[in-house]
Amino acid sequence: LYWATRDGVHIFPDPNRIAEIQRLMTDTWEMKFSRDRRLVHGSEAVPLGCRVANVLRVENHRAFARYSSYKDGLRMKRPGPCSPFPVRTSNRINLLDEDVNENYLFHGTNPESAQCIARDFFRVERAGSSAGSMFGPGIYLAENASKSDEYAKEGSGVYVGLCAMLLCRCAQGEVLTVSEAKDTREAIRAGYDSVCGDRLAAVGTFREMVFFNEEAVYPEFIVIYTRVFE
User: What's the pLDDT tens digit per position in 121-134?
Assistant: First the structure.
């Protein structure tokens, strides 16, 4: 890793990443409406895009150690690499471990909650606290920034008018793809490591990636941004 610290939790401004992450969010932004935008925001207005105001890099040593151990466990489960599972963010930002389908994925939230998650962990028991959990109670992430924006909310104080998104390293492992809404937790007991809820194939909207193991997701960047409507 390129980290600057050796222990604890540290969150640094990383201005050199702003342009790169702006491109990633722009490249994965699609103006599609889904029911979750209305559920969260009470509106069907879809932003044209976003403008990244700041990027913060998260160095949480305890969380990353858990994540690394989880990846090692995925390798021990099977004799070879996982079945390839390309996503819209593949081959961007940093080199990742393709053998366990490690990818960057987005998670929409608010600036205050983003800091809390980064300093601690994702919590599966909070699944569905922002909107529904169509594929069962898990950690929901997306390959499209515009999908995760459906769950993002503006902050308060210095964050008035600003939303937040976590850009996370995720070890997807062996992925089960489903298109219909149902509780998919049984997939883990059946040998899969995560689930792709493919509403793109079903109704033309987006794919969501669902994780039932908290250790499978490491929030590496906090992205502070504004929505662009015109």
Answer: 888 876 655 555 88
